[in-house]
């Protein structure tokens, strides 16, 4: 196994882990909010810090996390996992 292949396998394991984690929490969040009639007054899942926060304790609101942050994480990690798999297979 060459150094390039081992780096690709390491990238696959790391990015694949983040991808699985993102999908897991997004699906759990969807099920939670679906069962609660999309009541975003309750927070669920891991917390995200807001980029526009003035203080260190400012967290992203549940609605923003569900509609923007998780989908962005899911799409980004899925894209990088797909690119890594295509590179391992030899298509890229």
Automatic annotation (TrEMBL):
Keyword terms: Membrane, Transmembrane, Transmembrane helix
> What is the official name of this protein in its record?
Transmembrane protein
- Where does the chain cross the membrane? 7-27, 70-91
Keyword check for Transmembrane helix: yes
